[in-house]
Every structure is written in structure tokens, then in C-alpha cells.
């Protein structure tokens, strides 16, 4: 009977663990394998959950909203897809209102009429730079407050939800 060295036994054990993880789908993908981008934004409707990655949001048509708000004294050029387009992509376009949730658990409910009446965007850039997840990004709901004085007040300021991660139809 052949004797197995300690190194060979450890190598066999590592290989067995790797194969077990691979079978469970927990092993890292092989080098060069394409990975699906993680969802940046999840939409929940009666038909189920739909998700969009940052890449999918970047691929949508963008609008620029140059405005100031209670968080910025200066005019800032925000860029990103229109919220009404994002809702349509998530299957939430017919909702009367939406419940929005941020990464820090801040939440707000907004009537979708806002998104039909004004060019509200899901901002991904401010003055040409990506929004930082450490501050307000990567997704910040921005209203064109400087263009429409009726949007300049607490009701709309509380709707400027940043670090947006989830939208639910109501």
C-alpha cells in the first residue's frame, strides 16, 4: 500500500473543498468568465421584482438638470435618466405612486404625477463627475427646482432621496 504524504493529503482536501463549493455555486468563476453586474436599483411591482444595473442605467438616454437645492448653494449640472423612463423599464410606469428606499433606510412615497409633470432624473453625475456612494451616489433623485419655483420647499426637498436602491409600486 502506497503511503500518502501530508502535502498530498492537504492538496486532496483542498481540491475536495473546491469541488464541493463549485457544486454549490459558491466557488469563484473561472478566470475570464463574464460576471453579471450587480443590481443597482430594484423595482417591485405586482408582476414581481425587476432590477437594473448601473451599466443598464448608463445605457439609457440621459437628461441634464442644472439646479440648486437645499444641499448645494451653487448651480450644479446633474445628469442621468429621466425617472419616468426608469419606472417604465422597471415595469412601474402605471403606478399611482412609488415608495423609494435608500441604502441608509430613508424612505419617501412620491406620486408618479411628479415624474409626468417635471423632468425629474435619477442623477448619476454632478458637474461631470460620478456621484460617490460615500456621499449621495451612485443614484440621487433630482428635481429641476431652479426651473420651477413651486418645487422649492420642504415637500420636494424631502423627495431628493440619495443612495436610491429600491422602488416599489403603490
Automatic annotation (TrEMBL):
- Record domain Oxidoreductase molybdopterin-binding: where: 76-145
**Which keywords, in A-to-Z order, does the entry hold?**
Signal
Q: Pfam families from the xrefs? A: Oxidored_molyb
InterPro entries cross-referenced by the UniProt entry: OxRdtase_Mopterin-bd_dom, OxRdtase_Mopterin-bd_sf
Protein name, please?
Answer: Oxidoreductase molybdopterin-binding domain-containing protein
Report the leader peptide range. Answer: 1-33
